[in-house]
UniProtKB/TrEMBL annotation:
Organism from which the protein derives: Rhodosorus marinus
Domain Amine oxidase: 12-118
GO molecular function annotation: oxidoreductase activity
Signal peptide: none
Lineage: Eukaryota, Rhodophyta, Stylonematophyceae, Stylonematales, Stylonemataceae
Entry protein name: Amine oxidase domain-containing protein
Record Gene3D superfamilies: Protoporphyrinogen oxidase, mitochondrial, domain 2
InterPro entries: Amino_oxidase (IPR002937)
C-alpha cells in the first residue's frame, strides 16, 4: 500500500526488516508452513540502564569505549558503554554517562523482573 493506492513492484531481492515473529505471518502466504519456523527464534530480554556519575567518582579518568564483563564474573551486566567518552556533550560538564546492558540469553529469568529489580 502507498498513499496513492496499491502498487506492485517486481524485484529479485527483498529485505524484510520486521521481527521474526511478525515476518512469519507476512511470509506464510508466500512460502507456506515453513514460515512458522521464524516463530522459534528466541529474543533474549536485555535491559539498557543509563547511569550518571560525577567525574570525580572515578579513580582515573575514563578513556575508551567501555567494558565487557565475562559471565564467569557472576555479574548480570553484559557490558557498559562509556557514552560520554564516545559522544562528547552527551553528559553535562563534570559528569560521565554510562550505558549498561543487563540480561541476555544466559539470564532468561531477568525477563520477569521489574525495572526497579533490575536496577537494584
Amino acid at each position: 500500500q502507498t498513499p496513492s493506492g496499491t502498487e506492485t513492484v517486481i524485484s529479485k531481492t527483498v529485505a524484510l526488516t520486521a521481527p521474526a515473529y511478525i515476518a512469519s505471518g507476512i511470509l506464510e502466504p508466500l512460502i507456506g508452513p515453513s514460515a512458522k519456523r521464524l516463530d522459534e527464534i528466541n529474543y533474549p530480554c536485555v535491559y539498557s540502564v543509563n547511569l550518571g556519575y560525577r567525574k570525580e567518582a572515578f579513580k582515573t579518568p575514563l578513556k575508551g569505549f567501555g567494558n565487557l564483563i565475562p559471565r564467569s564474573m557472576g555479574i548480570t551486566t553484559l557490558g557498559t558503554i562509556w557514552s560520554s567518552c564516545l559522544f562528547p556533550g552527551r553528559a553535562p560538564e563534570g559528569m560521565e554517562l554510562l550505558l549498561s546492558y543487563i540480561g541476555g540469553a544466559q539470564n532468561d529469568e531477568i525477563a520477569g523482573q521489574t525495572a526497579d529489580e533490575v536496577c537494584a
